[in-house]
Specification:
Elements (H helix, E strand, L loop, with lengths): L1 E10 L2 E7 L1 H6 L5 E5 L7 E4 L2 E3 L4 E7 L3 H8 L5 E2 L1 E6 L10 E7 L3 H13 L3 E8 L8 H5 L4 E6 L6 E2 L2 H10 L7 E5 L2 H14 L2 E5 L15 E4 L2 E4 H4 L2 E3 L5 H10 L1 H9 L10
Parallel strand pairs: 9-10, 9-13, 10-11, 11-12, 13-14
Antiparallel strand pairs: 1-2, 1-7, 2-6, 3-4, 3-8, 5-6, 14-17, 15-16
Helix pairs in contact: 5-6
């Protein structure tokens, strides 16, 4: 069992949990994730490891309530336990000294972006981080990002904080209006956001990495639900990724696959569908 050591509310329905998982904490690297079950009767689902403390034997996860399993996890309190955590899974982020890098996060995507920005800074890069959300109240990890970045730029769709507009517009503004140069981009967030950022960076000639964790289901490669096309070849986001060259991702096919699961998401949120429960 994995005990919850700390719990914080970051934004409406978004929580940060620090959980005891010493084996994972000891070896995890930026970009990797865990597959967990809140209870032994529940479903398995993946979450990116946001941070870790090997000395304490803990990992940090950030969770947004979007269905029954995440609601159950977010309802847990300090001192309670989670049934199963398997990991670390997935390939670690390719971390090198690229020069000037821009890390672009949208919404809950800022959570998996944080360990990447931190690793890139530790590798000697100059890191500019762009954090975007629909509105001010949904901005997360601003202070954490400031601690691992040389500069942080905020953006909101409604203009309630930072620059008004999408994060892809901010990337274009920094390059074309402010004359900044970027050698590498890491972008994580909703699929439409990553697609838009890749469109801009391709035009500007900036190598770009994206994380396709939004399409992962069980996180182990057994379900086959996270098939994606990368440079015309079929890959599995969980076992071949989750990070890929953003300019090689077939975002049209990815969007189509995500829509296949819309009806299941609606059922999970409404409570019409629930994982099987143990009966006595």
């Amino acid at each position: 069992m994995h005990t919850i050591l700390d719990k914080q509310l970051l934004a409406p329905k978004v929580y940060r949990l620090r959980i005891r998982a010493p084996e994972v904490a000891r070896v995890r690297r930026a970009g990797q994730f865990v597959a967990l079950r809140v209870t032994k009767e529940g479903e398995r689902f993946p979450l990116t490891i946001v941070d870790s403390d090997p000395g304490e034997g803990s990992i940090t996860l950030i969770i947004q309530e979007v269905g029954l399993s995440t609601q159950l996890l977010c309802s847990k309190n300090v001192g309670e336990a989670i049934s199963d955590i398997a990991g670390p899974l997935g390939h670690p982020t390719e971390v090198g000294k690229f020069g000037n890098v821009v890390c672009v996060g949208g919404g809950i995507g800022v959570a998996p972006l944080y360990p990447i920005a931190k690793a890139l800074k530790q590798a000697g890069n100059k890191v500019t981080t762009i954090i975007g959300a629909r509105t001010k109240d949904l901005i997360i990890l601003e202070q954490d990002m400031r601690g691992v970045s040389d500069d942080v730029v905020l953006a909101s769709d409604d203009g309630s904080i930072g620059m008004k507009g999408f994060v892809s517009d901010v990337v274009k503004h920094l390059v074309q209006k402010e004359g900044r140069r970027f050698d590498f981009c890491a972008a994580i967030g909703p699929v439409p956001m990553m697609r838009a950022v890749c469109g801009v960076t391709k035009e500007l000639g900036i190598r770009t990495m994206v994380s396709l964790n939004p399409i992962m289901v069980d996180g182990t490669g057994m379900c086959g639900g996270c098939r994606v096309l990368i440079g015309g070849q079929t890959k599995f986001a969980c076992v071949d990724g989750p990070e890929f060259d953003g300019h090689q991702v077939d975002f049209a096919a990815l969007t189509s696959r995500l829509r296949m699961y819309d009806y299941l998401k609606e059922q999970c949120v409404s409570g019409a569908f629930a994982p099987a429960q143990k009966t006595s």
